[in-house]
Amino acid sequence: MNYFDLSDIDPEKHTKVKNHLLWEVDQDSFDYFRTSQIVVERVVQRGDIDDWLTI
Question: Degrees (nearest 5) of the Cα angle 3, 48, 42?
Fold first, then answer.
């Protein structure tokens, strides 16, 4: 069973999740690693395949 191909990850495109998933934070100063639980939660709830490939 194939879910998706991880070779589709584009290092230039998949660097940050979309802004609308983290609407309440300043994207320029946001620390993705320190708040990874929030990022993963938002991607699982509202993200698309590009956001999944980013995390």
Answer: 115
Q: Which residues contact 32 (CB under 8 A, 6 or more apart)?
A: 16, 39
Mean of pLDDT over the chain: 84
Pull the structure tokens for residue 35: 């708040």
pLDDT value at 7 more than 70: yes
Closest CA to 38 of 55, 14, 15, 13: 55
Gap between the Cα atoms of 13 and 32, Å rounded: 16
